[in-house]
Amino acid sequence: MNIQLEDGSQIGGGNLISAIYRTDLVPVPVTLELVVKADDRLRDLFTIGRKMTTPKGVPLVIVKSQVINEQSIKAGRRVAAIHVIAIIGGCEALLGVTNKAVHLENTNFNEVYRALGAKVRIQRDVKLASFTCLKGQLPTAAIALALQREAAVVCNTESGLSVIRLNELMGGDAIMFDKSAVQWIDNPNVIRHSNINYLSIDDNGSDILGTARAERSIQYYPRADTRELQNLRRILITKATITRQLDERLDAGSIISVDGQSLVTLTGVHKYETGAMGGRSVAATKAWLAQIEDTKQ
Questions:
Q1: Which of 42, 44, 49, 192 is most buried, taking the most CB atoms under 10 A from its CB?
Q2: d(CA 46, CA 52)
């Protein structure tokens, strides 16, 4: 995996031990985990706050760096390695709790991210009636709830971060796969536990908004209208997984067609093992595939 470092250089095949590149449909949608052999140059370039760029041009910033001692011995000395975790650049402020309350009315996710300290621009946005993140809360949790209210997800696209509604997400061009390549998951309890009955109270203070369906838990959601209650029920449920040799098409948000069924990649993980510490090299991809749960069920 050819990662460009902050000084314009690359890690080098002799230093890279492993890399895990992961994309998700979440508020911070890209992470990279690296293990490299430590030398003076990489010790300096792999400190917290340093930047990197993926081959696809995704900017990353290091948020964790740890020197670890491997079990291998070379030239009479134990080999040291650096374990690094990086996330998509500009989202570092979202990893810690807020030091102030944020409340916005008639807003959008661009303004939400900026108010929470993130330095990113949402290329494709969705309007929000309101957003609240209290002091001491985790920003990503508040953003995830706001996304659910709008039946939307955050996806890293070729043009950058985008907020996409679920119905629009499923309308993209599909990658065709044979059904033999997919491992299906049959677990009705996941739907029962994840797809919750959300109810609210009308402005008159007496009428209940929403419908309670059987075999679903119930939660009260204050000041929600009928549209938001319906959106809260529209969720992605994992239906299958696919594991294959490295396939960089399977990033989060990509649409898969299997035996006439359309699924979206909820999480895509690309793993690289170079064999630098012994053993064989590996380049593989695993994706978790999801469908929209029907709100009428």
A1: 42
A2: 9
* Two structure tokens written together for 209: 């908004």
pLDDT at 297: 41
**What size, in residues, is the chain?**
297
Tokens 């797809």 appear where? Answer: 195
Q: 76 or 98: which carries more pLDDT confidence? A: 98
Dist CA 160 CA 156 (whole Å): 6
Q: Which two tokens mark 179?
A: 């059904």
Q: Give every CB contact of residue 73 below 8 A, 6+ residues apart in sequence.
A: 79
- The contacts of residue 204 (CB under 8 Å, 6+ apart) are none
Distances from the Cα of 178 to the Cα of 64, 77, 250, angstroms: 39, 49, 15
Q: Using the structure block, give the residue that is written with the tokens 């330095």.
A: 119
Q: How many CA atoms lie within 13 A of 235 on its CB side?
A: 20
**SS3 of residue 162 by DSSP:** strand
Main-chain dihedrals φ then ψ at residue 127, nearest 5 degrees? -75, 150
pTM value? Answer: 0.86
Phi, psi torsion values for 207, nearest 5 degrees: -75, 135
Q: Indicate the average pLDDT of the chain.
A: 85
Q: Tell me how far apart the alpha carbons of residues 198 and 221 are, in angstroms, rounded to a whole number.
A: 6
User: Is the separation of the CB atoms in 37 and 79 below 8 Å?
Assistant: yes
* Listed residue (263, 107, 296, 80) closest to 170, CA to CA: 263
- 249-269: pLDDT as tens digits: 999 999 999 988 899 999 999
Helices (H), ranges, the chain: 40-45, 109-115, 139-149, 166-169, 188-194, 226-233
- Provide the CA 100 distance to its chain's centre, in angstroms: 25
